[in-house]
Specification:
125 residues; alpha/beta; Rossmann fold; five-stranded parallel sheet; 45% helix; globular; Bact_response_regulator
Length: 125
Amino acid sequence: MTTKRILLIDDEDDIREIAQLSLEMIGGWNVITACCGMEGIETAENEHPDAIMLDVMMPELDGFATFQKLQANQQTKDIPVILLTAKIQSSDRQKFDSLGVSGVIAKPFEPLSLAEEVAQILGWT
């Protein structure tokens, strides 16, 4: 069985570092990181990860615009996307559900349970 690869797109260095450590050490996955939406789209095209974790609130190209571009791209449209967000009210959740993302993880997340949460959302358990 090959090791799953996750692309983590987040503009915050600390979040990328903590999530990467958690997903690699606890989940046993390979994590590729990108610091912004455009870099994330390019990385997704080149690396073809098994899943993408995408921050919603980023400068320039936010998570929603990044997701739309990923969905419009033949090379990346079938990659499951999990949104990372600090905004998790019911109105926000309805918006997220209508997008067709695989799931939503609230920030701040618990590093020790992040890999389990991702595995459950993606059906990797």
